[in-house]
Amino acid sequence: MSLRVGDTMFLPRGETAVITDFDRNSNSFKVSSEAGLNKESRRHGYINGISKEDRSSLMNLLDRVKEIDDPKERIGELRKKLDELSTDPHQWQMARYVESEMAHMMNMFGIKPTTYTAELGMLKDPK
Q1: Tally of CB atoms within 10 A around 41
Q2: Cα–Cα separations (whole angstroms), residue 41 to 18, 44, 67, 83, 85
């Protein structure tokens, strides 16, 4: 299991805590179960396994998107960001998080995709 600073984890009693520091020399980490820190770290759900910079960027994107009232516009904004991220192969992890959030919103608001991508093998030969 991969843990990074900023990730949320569950303590033995089922409470959540946020990883605040990691010491590579002793291979140990410090956690905080402070309520304010916990609430802030998961304001958009449990987002684990992402770098501190990408986490901050994703949180800012989701903050901006959730200020939009119309769910279709929210999804449109996420789509734009996903298209931008998809052009950079180094941003594959961030693209997956944005795609997952977009899928979650589509399911939550009952919005169906208007375009689909299909693999050539899935299509029947037109001959």
Answers
A1: 23
A2: 7, 8, 18, 26, 23
Question: Do the beta carbons of residue 51 and residue 61 sit within 8 Å?
Answer: no
Provide the residue-wise pLDDT of the chain in tens; the chain has 127 residues: 577 888 888 888 888 888 888 888 888 888 888 877 666 766 667 777 788 888 889 989 999 998 999 999 999 999 999 999 999 999 998 999 899 899 999 999 999 887 777 676 655 665 5
Which residue, among 95, 32, 105, has the nearest Cα to 69 in the 3D structure?
Answer: 105
Nearest one of 73, 126, 124 to 102, comparing CA atoms: 73
Residue 18 DSSP one-character state: E
Beta-sheet strand order (sheet of 16-23): 8-10, 16-23, 28-32
